[in-house]
Every structure is written in structure tokens, then in C-alpha cells.
Amino acid sequence: MKRSLLPLLACPGPGGGRRCGGSLKAGPADGLALRAAGEELREGGLRCGDCGRVYPILSGVALLHPEPEAYLRSHYDALIRDLDRYGELTPPLRSWLARRCSRDAGGADYGADFRFSQQFEEPWDVARAMAPEPHARYGAFAEWLAGMHGENPYSVLAEWAAALPRRRHLVLDAGCGGGGLLARVAPAFGMALGLDRSFLAVLLARRAVLHLPEAERSYLLVLRRGEEVERPIRVERRDNAEFFVADCSALPLPDELFDAVLSCNVIDIAGIGGPLDEAARVLRPGGSLGVSAPFFFRDGHAPDGDPREAVRSRLRDRGLTLAAEKEGVPWTWATYDRHWHVYFNYCAAAVRE
Predict the structure, then answer these.
(1) How does strand 170-174 pair with strand 258-264?
(2) What is d(CA 243, CA 270) in angstroms, rounded to the nearest whole number?
(3) Of 12, 198, 226, 296, which shows the fewest CB atoms inside 10 Å?
(4) How far is 282 from 174, CA to CA, in rounded Å?
(5) Higher pLDDT pick, 110 / 312
(6) Own/partner pairs for 339-345, CB < 8 Å, 24+ apart?
(7) How confident is the model at residue 18 (pLDDT cuts 50, 70, 90)?
(8) In CATH, what is the architecture of 116-352?
(9) How far apart are the first and last CA of the chain?
(10) pTM, to two decimals
(11) Cα–Cα dist 164/308, whole Å
């Protein structure tokens, strides 16, 4: 992570029945020495000056989950696997993780559900990569894909973020996945931050968008079982971006900081209340909040009645005025050559006066 971003962060941990919100300072993480290369903090920790909680930095990724110890224990196996594949798993870091977590090692994964094709390629380009003659393979579906012309939730939210806020210094993507939306919106802002609960997503987003610790230049697109094709990832490096691990319902950020906050396909996973309340909290006056979801809610998260009205009501309750809505925005990606997912998202944007 960039050392210069420390003043923008705040402790997300609980403190006295509320969010702590204390300032964070870089240093060792209870035995893991601080390792830096110029502006980049690669290993160590961030200590809260108020509650003393320490948030580790692992291969340049600050783990700002409100319960970092529980996160490390729950995802130990996945962390070792993904740091080894995509990050920098140095001997001191491997030893530190083993000492702290291996006794409670578990097999839990982060629940990331994204693909590089979904993040960085148009569905029509994917269809042509999967089938030499997509019209012969997919028929009328191919005609529909060819006519989409880049219409997706990312394009809608990015367009609103570039048009609605009074100023465009800071933008946040809460639930950033592999960085596809942030890569699109970063050129319109001075600084762009992405947060996701999945450590793997953040590692891959840093590789794709920041080119750290090295650039991710390609990915393997699954055609069918046992057969893949290599596809290029063409993402210009965004030096004004950074990614962290965090919970969208407990953002590690102070109040009224951002000019725009975006959230794509989060509220149906984490619920409407927590993510929208937190997004509104960190939005400055004159800023805009853009949200998109297919309303395929996980158990326990579906609101009573029309979910669109639940979103509108929550935004109004948090002092935001609805500025734009768009229904039926296609969210399309392929699992393999004969299995495609199509969600039709509801998109909304609201402004804080």
C-alpha cells in the first residue's frame, strides 16, 4: 500500500459500542517487521492510536477487516495459497502467519465470485474467443451480445461518477472485486480506492490495475472441461489507485471523505442496510453514491416488498436525493462455452446536498 494514503484511513474496529475511527500508524505487526520500498509498504502493520488494534500488511495489502485476527485464522490456508501464487510470500511472512494462525487453520475461502473476463472484457469479445462462429453457436443470443455496445453496470456507474459529483478528487469502489470498475473510473478522479472482503480479489486487482508486485498480462478462459485459451489483460497502470481488504459494512475510513462512492453487486450479498449506511457516511456533501445489484439476495438479506423501494428509502433516510435510475442493465459473463450467466441489474445514483 502507499504510505501517503495513511491519513485517509481510520480504524474500523469496534470501540465502546461504536466504530473506533482512530488514526493508523505504520510499524511492525507484533513480530512482523515493517518492510518498505520507497512509497510502498510491503510488510508490517498499521496500529490504531486509540484502541491499539493492529492491522497487518501482507505483500502490500493492508488487511483492514474489523476483526483481523479472526480473518487470518479463518482464511489461513487460502492466504498462504494466494500469497504464494500472486504475491510475495517472504520467509518472515510465512513464519509469522504460521505462528499466529496455523493452530486454527481452516479451509474457508473468501467467497470471491468474479472472473477476469467479467472484469475486463466485453461479453461479445469473450463469445468470439470461445466460438470461431458465435452466431452459429449461440444464435439469437449472439445477436444480442453483439448489440450490447459496452452496456453493463460498470459503464453506467462510471458514467454517473464522472458526471454527478461537484468535485472529483476521491472515489471509492466498495466491493471492488478484481478492479474492473475502478480501472474505468480512476482516470476521472485524483485518487481511487478499492475495497473488497476477498484477499484474493485485492491481490489480483493490484496485479491487474497497479501492476504490483508484477503486472497480470493474461488469464485463462475456460472453453470446456480440460480446455482453456489464454486471453490478454490490457489494463493501463493506474498510479492513482490502491486496493485494501475491508468489510463494506465497516469501512476503514473517516466520515465525509469521498466525492463519489460506488457499489456494484454488493447489497444482494451483504444486505442493503450496512453497505448503504457506510457508503453514505463516508460521502462528502455534494458527492454522489452509485449502486447496482441484480437483487439475487442471499438468505436473510432480502427486504420485504420491492427491493428498489428499499434502496430508495435507505438513501432518503441517509440524506441523499435520488438523481438517476436505470433498470435492466445486463451483467453478463461466461462460465464455459455453453453456459452463460445474465443478470439484469437495477442501477441508482443519489447525491448528498
Answers:
(1) parallel
(2) 19
(3) 226
(4) 11
(5) 312
(6) 340/123, 340/141, 343/294, 343/296, 344/294, 345/153, 345/265, 345/292, 345/293, 345/294
(7) confident
(8) 3-Layer(aba) Sandwich (3.40)
(9) 32
(10) 0.95
(11) 21
